[in-house]
Design goal:
heterodimer; A: five-stranded antiparallel beta sheet; five-stranded antiparallel beta sheet; B: alpha/beta; five-stranded parallel beta sheet; globular
């Protein structure tokens, strides 16, 4: 019965595609092998012990011994077995075979080779590992969210970095890891999982809770569903780049650009830009308002024909040299009137120092120009008037003086007539001096140089003469000191006389009347020094600074009774400078005031009209 | 009797100078500007000196000086005394100082200069 069964069994197993064999005895001698077994081994091992037939298959020798000893069935899954020189994989079941008494007398082996499957699995596994390794090292943030709960199963370092939440998200479902995230963003990822439709967006804003609280960050990101081999959703892979910095920069640049544009449009000036070659490519609304032109490139058509060549030359020079551009020219207004403009531009340079563009402005200076030209005209008229008036005044003065002098001559012995006529002459001379001073001061004020007739002059006697004249008016207060009895030089005698008269008259006016006025003459190193000193109140330092300006009077004097036009010191300076010299003042409380004129011994070279 | 020509547009000065010089014993001829003076010289050149104002209408003193040299080279030695209200810049550059009078005129200076130039001319 058993034999019959055994026989039937052997027949059945002889046909099966699975490997089947029966081993006998403790040496595991192959008693029966089926076709599949022969095929797998490459030979028929019947009659041979396992260790003889397959000495290399050491992986299974021990297991067979154990099953034979213990009688416990062994299920071996994907067990590697060395056959010949190659390693192959098998799923095997070893079951003890017992006799009628229940004693183990052999082992039945049923199994199949799974080498191909194992190798394929390993390949897939290795590919997966490689993929994960690559993803982990990718410069982009990568995360794999698994299942419909979208659990963060794989996150690479970059992803953790850009999310800024640390390891916290690992193993957490999306809605827990990013509870703070906008609902629509969560829905986007869930939709990718549900629909399988990939999603991608640039500069996608997301509010993320980080250590410092909620922050808005921007990502370029894409999400794609991963399916299992049957097309069922497994999870979602997310790739992300943090572009917050670029977006912030761009936004602030856009804001700045908007502000600049706003400023450009709100200033009263015409603002423009030009390319490196000088071609205008932008003008603000002011230009259109002024010219009615919308085309920045045709500005040259609005330049006054008389200015075009000059403007082209200056602009061309700036474009070529990179020098800042500044000029004035006339531009045609839409109503056909030309206005003067001040036009300026500066180059903008790129990182390598090359000019990339020009920023320019045009300021309407028509009103200023008008005021300036009116002022200039007025000044010219005033100067002409002063000069004409004073010139013409000299003729009646001249006629009056001639007649006064005729009377004086005719007076003969009549003392009254001669002295009256003399007084008329003196006062006519005084009036003439005033005219002369006014004319000269006007000239000095206008920055001109006095023209003086230089001649040989004996300084000592000239100064003595002046002081004698002054003494007749002011009394004998003048004391002269000189380091030489004869100081001769080439000067304007009239000029020196005016210096002396002005300085001495001032000393009388502002000095203490009980004290002497000291005049000191010094010849030294080709120069002559004329110093006039008086005692009395000092001149403040502030007043000293403007003392020589025309029409200036110190405050004290202006409030007092002292008369004059405040031209005296201006003339002294003018005369000294016309001699190639200078004048200075020293005024100290308790020590009085000294005006010192320093001129070269020979002033002929310093005056254009010098003989 | 010496003859002096006065070329001056201002009548008050012209007449005053005439009175003065006549009282000093000079024969006086009057011209109100350079053009009148040149016309006179076409018919009569018997002069001992000229008193010339620089600033005048029609023909000013500077033009007169140029024209008299051009038209009457024979009068090259005739002394001409310039009278001017303007500064040194107005006087021709190489003009002798002795032949310049500044306005307002000083009678004593005027008479002494006229005497000097007429005597010098006579000696020559």
């Amino acid at each position: 019965m058993i034999n019959v069964e055994d026989k039937n069994l052997r027949n059945l197993f002889a046909q099966t595609p699975e490997m089947f064999c029966i081993l006998k005895g403790p040496d595991h001698v192959f008693e029966f092998v089926n076709e599949a077994h022969i095929k797998a081994l490459g030979f028929d091992a019947t009659g041979k012990g396992v260790r003889v037939a397959q000495p290399e298959s050491v992986e299974v020798h021990g297991i067979l011994d154990e099953v034979y000893t213990s009688g416990v069935t062994a299920h071996l899954h994907e067990i590697p077995v060395t056959l010949g020189t190659s390693l192959r994989y098998f799923d095997l079941t070893y079951a003890a075979r017992k006799d009628q008494t229940g004693k183990i007398n052999g082992i039945m082996i049923l199994g199949s080779e799974v080498t191909n499957r194992v190798l394929a699995d390993e390949k897939v596994k290795r590919a997966h590992e490689n993929l994960v390794r690559i993803l982990m090292q990718a410069p982009a943030g990568v995360a794999y969210l698994k299942g419909d709960a979208l659990v963060f199963e794989i996150v690479n370092n970059r992803y953790i970095e850009i999310i800024g939440k640390g390891d916290f998200i690992k193993g957490k479902p999306l809605r827990e890891a990013f509870a703070e995230l906008e609902e629509k963003t969560k829905v986007i990822l869930e939709d990718v999982y549900i629909t399988g439709k990939p999603f991608s967006a640039r500069e996608f804003p997301a509010t993320i809770k980080r250590a410092n609280g909620l922050e808005t960050v921007y990502f370029d990101f894409s999400a794609e569903r991963i399916n299992d081999p049957y097309g069922k959703p497994e999870g979602v892979v997310v790739f992300g780049y943090d572009v917050t910095e670029q977006v912030t920069l761009r936004k602030s640049f856009e804001q700045n650009a908007n502000q600049i544009l706003l400023i450009n449009e709100s200033v009263p000036q015409v603002i423009w830009t030009a390319d490196a070659l000088g071609k205008l490519n932008y003008t603000n609304a002011r230009w259109t308002e002024y010219s009615a032109s919308n085309n920045p490139t045709d500005w040259i058509n609005f330049v006054h024909p008389e200015d075009i060549e000059r403007v082209k030359k200056i602009w061309g020079h700036s474009i070529e040299s990179g020098a800042p551009y500044e000029t004035e020219f006339r531009l045609l207004r839409k109503d056909g009137v030309y206005h003067w403009f001040l036009v300026r531009a500066s180059p903008v340079r790129d990182e390598s120092g090359n000019i990339s563009k020009w920023y320019g402005s045009c300021t309407d200076i028509e009103a200023q120009k008008k005021v300036v030209s009116e002022l200039e005209l007025e000044k010219e008229l005033r100067d002409q008037f002063v000069s004409m008036l004073s010139h013409d005044l000299r003729n009646p003065l001249s006629a009056a003086k001639i007649n006064a002098q005729i009377i004086r001559r005719l007076g003969g012995d009549s003392e009254k007539i001669t002295s009256s006529a003399g007084r008329i002459v003196d006062n006519l001379n005084r009036a003439n001096n005033m005219i002369e001073n006014l004319l000269d001061a006007n000239k000095i004020k206008a920055g001109g140089k006095l023209q003086l007739q230089m001649e040989e002059v004996g300084l000592n006697s000239l100064v003595e003469d002046v002081l004698i004249d002054l003494a007749t008016v002011h009394g004998d207060r003048f004391q002269v000191q000189s380091n030489s009895d004869v100081i001769n030089g080439h000067w304007s005698a009239d000029g020196i006389r005016r210096i002396m008269e002005n300085l001495c008259n001032n000393a009388v006016k502002y000095g203490d009347e009980r004290t002497p006025i000291e005049v000191r003459l010094e010849q030294q190193d080709g120069k002559v020094k004329i110093a006039v000193h008086n005692y009395g109140n000092a001149i403040s330092e502030e007043d000293q600074k403007k003392l020589f300006d025309p029409y200036q009077r110190t405050v004290d004097v202006a409030q007092g009774q002292i008369t004059g036009w405040g031209l005296g010191l201006t003339l002294v300076r003018g005369v000294a400078e016309a001699h190639g010299g200078m004048v200075e003042v020293r005024s100290v409380a308790g020590d009085g005031t000294t005006f010192t004129v320093l001129i070269p011994l020979d002033s002929r070279a310093n005056n254009a009209s010098g003989v | 009797m010496k003859t002096i020509m006065i070329i001056e547009d201002d009548a008050a000065i012209r007449d005053s100078l005439q009175e003065l010089l006549e009282s000093e014993g000079y024969n006086v001829i009057l011209a109100e500007h350079g053009q009148v003076a040149l016309s006179f010289l076409e018919t009569n050149q018997k002069l001992d000196a000229i008193l010339l104002d620089l600033s005048m209408p029609v023909m000013d003193g500077k033009t007169f000086l140029r024209e008299i040299t051009r038209l009457f080279p024979a009068l090259g030695r005739l002394p001409i005394i310039i009278m001017t209200a303007a500064g040194p810049g107005e006087i021709p550059r190489d003009y002798a100082k002795e032949r310049v009078l500044r306005k307002p005129l000083d009678v004593d200076e005027l008479i002494s200069k006229i005497e000097m130039v007429t005597e010098a001319a006579q000696i020559l």
